[in-house]
Amino acid sequence: MEEGLTGRNISEKIPEELIKPDKEGLISIQEGMDFCGSTYSFVKFLKTFLRSIDDKAKEIEDALTSEDYQLYTMKVHSLKSTSRIIGAHRLSELSKKLELAGESGEIDVIKEKTGELLELYRSYSNKLSDISSISLDGIKLRPLASREIIDDAYRALREVSPMMDYDSVEMIIEGLKKYKLPEDEKERIEKIEYYLKKLDWESVQDLLNDKKEV
Hints:
Layout lengths: L15 H8 L5 H8 L2 H13 L1 H13 L3 H18 L2 H16 L2 H21 L19 H14 L5 H11 L6 H15 L3 H9 L5
Helix pairs in contact: 2-3, 3-9, 4-5, 4-7, 5-6, 6-7, 8-9, 10-11
């Protein structure tokens, strides 16, 4: 285990490509592992995060250009959530500031700070580029999901699903699928994934809001 990295989930070999960005404060291995539950899931989440940067940055940019501030607020909300999962604190906090600006109609703040947000967001493509080369083969998996991990995932799903953020919901589900889940939770996640692929967001949210019905 890497010296200084302690906590309930840091018990697996950490790829070297994660150590430098963690020390530089770009990501947090501890927080990412706390959420994702395993090295495998965290690395896979990071890879998806990296692949989506160009498209999601452009979505934010386009929403601003078209002055669609409702859509803009939804997009920065989603970025806030995914950034928090990987421990990208500055990116998450700036996204949160712009989300609040969108909710309160502070257009001047949005116009002033969006350039800074997009520059920071896009910089992750280069700063985390080494993560793309990490092989997922042979990374140890954790076979059993704790109640805490499952509940954390449901909280995240409830946060991003109202925004119809397909990529974020898919990332969270993919993270959960790396675990052995209790049968009722496995069935629920399978149904959520089924409705996600059909873009049936109402059914997705029904399953998330009524955990007794599987």
